[in-house]
């Protein structure tokens, strides 16, 4: 028997955003997807208007695939934001864009050669 049930409202963490919805981590066993149609009753132009990667939110369970350990979830109609929690700040490495600057020309040349060989 599952520890989760349909219609349960649970805390999840946003792990990825695609144009069709966003992925979440439920816990160490389960992951989930909030399809774009389950975000709002209204047209959703940009999912990042609602959530960002790393953000912890509340979501309602629509379905559970126990075999795959995956859930379909929704946030429409919920007060889904969890206040007082901030996502981790992105820190720039000490090298910044140096790696890109040092390797970009070589990467471009390599890709051009690969494309030329495919013709």
Task: Report on the architecture of this protein.
A 5-stranded mixed barrel has the order 1-2-3-5-4. With 119 residues, it is an alpha+beta fold. The model has no long low-confidence stretch (mean pLDDT 88). It contains 1 helix and 5 strands, in the order βββββα. The longest helix is centred in the C-terminal third of the chain and has 21 residues, at 98-118.
Average pLDDT, rounded to a whole number, is 88
Order of helices and strands: EEEEEH
- What Rg, in angstroms, do the CA atoms define? 20 Å
Q: Roughly how much helix do the residues carry, as a percent range?
A: 10-25%
Summed up, the helix count is: 1
Compute the separation of the termini in Å.
Answer: 56 Å
Choose one word for the global shape: elongated
| SS strand fraction | 25-35%
Strand order of the largest sheet: 1-2-3-5-4
**Which class of secondary structure composition applies to the elements?**
alpha+beta
Largest sheet: 5 strands, mixed, barrel
Oligomerization state: single chain
